[in-house]
Design a protein that fits this description.
single chain, alpha/beta, 8-stranded mixed β-sheet, 19 helices, binds uridine-5'-diphosphate-glucuronic acid
Length: 459
Amino acid sequence: MKVCVVGTGYVGLTTGICLAYLGHEVTCVDLNQEKVDLLRGGRSPIYEPFLDELMHEAAHNLTFTTDYAEGVPGAEVVFVAVQTPSLPDGQPDLRYLRMAAESIGRTIDGEFTVVVNKSTVPIGSGNWVESILRESFEQFHSRRAAGEFAVASNPEFLREGSAIHDTLYPDRIVIGSDNPRSLDVLNRLYRAVLNQSFTAPTFLPRPEEVGAVPLVSTDLASAELIKYAANAFLALKISYINEIGKLANKVGADINQVARGTGLDARIGSRFLQPGVGWGGSCFGKDTAALIATAAEYSYDMPIVSAARVVNQRQREEAVNKLLDELRILKGRKIGLLGLAFKPNTDDLRDSPAIDIARLMIARGARVKLHDPIAAERFRVEEPELAASLCESVDEVFDDSDAVVLVTEWPQYLELDWGKYVGLMRTPIILDGRNVLDPQRLSRLGYTYLTIAGRPVGL
Ligand code: UGA
């Protein structure tokens, strides 16, 4: 099928490349010429495992352009995957969505086109986009729209760092539309994913447990709410385990055992119960804020979602408090931070706990030394005032430091030769911000092991 994807961020690019891999003819439109030039040269503007490889394999089905007129006319499906950053009041900024809808309305020219909201957009956006499309179509074509297009919502559930995997092997596909014809078109588009009939890429084989993928078809508003409900639930699951972790600390329980013993209850599930400095990234903070802001429009408050946000912010502050308890004075101390990305396997720094923690330490008079195996380059560009604190190597982070905090659990940090660093530090204090290190082993090596959540047993 002929498909157009507007916006080449994590969601748009992954969607476009995966659909091209599945055999569709995909044109990706982005107004950023620099990005389009990179993509035309076969290089991805973001770090995402296997994206380059898949883009290479699907190159014959992929076109990148800054011109809507090259992608929209004749497309059966147009995905809108533009950014929707937060405004100060928590509502998402919809100006890019409006611009995209206007441009699509002007260039739509086919028998029937489904315009799909893929970005996470406030509830009601489907109707809003439909009215902009209609206005723009009618202005440009000087006639009334008569069933040439319909709007659908197809929320995205991929995680950064495993975006390709999540797109090819999803837990479910949700399609919301008030027009039955759209459902039929999107059903055809996703058929190979729904029945898992495509040949899996050699570098990303199909997991054994993956069978037919459930399709959830709903009205527009329900699909839009499913996305927010899912993200807010995951966010509060993390905050919940972090809250229990604090109590574990007080009563002398081991939070990792508590999380395991709780999560094995199939009704709860063991994923997203990893305690630590809390969530970051472009989604959980933004989407929980948007959900609360939407509810407020209806004079409704959401205490559970609000509390999840409060607990998350507390976790970041807790990293500083833990070191303060141990070192007593932070002024003049050298504190190393391992990891800057909001989680491993991505170079995304949006709402990263590491940046907040670094700023809180600096505000207390400490000197920070920062390291990340992949995100350092992006950090230099996006955080220029902190860039001077970047270290070239892990050795530098430990050298003469008063404490080192593991903030992002990159696999390479888990396999460090910890014995080598203990003698390099001024005081060998490790704060395990993700509860992933072995406290017994580190203690044997001579470190003082600290953790954000409780794990004092045997230490
Ligand atoms: C999240 C959702 O997981 C996706 O389903 C959704 O599509 C996406 O948002 C989105 O709305 O676009 P993402 O933000 O890429 O995906 O990353 P996650 O893997 O969910 O991690 C989010 C944060 O939670 C990270 O900072 C991670 O370190 C933290 N986390 C995760 C924990 O602190 N504990 C856990 O147990 C799991």
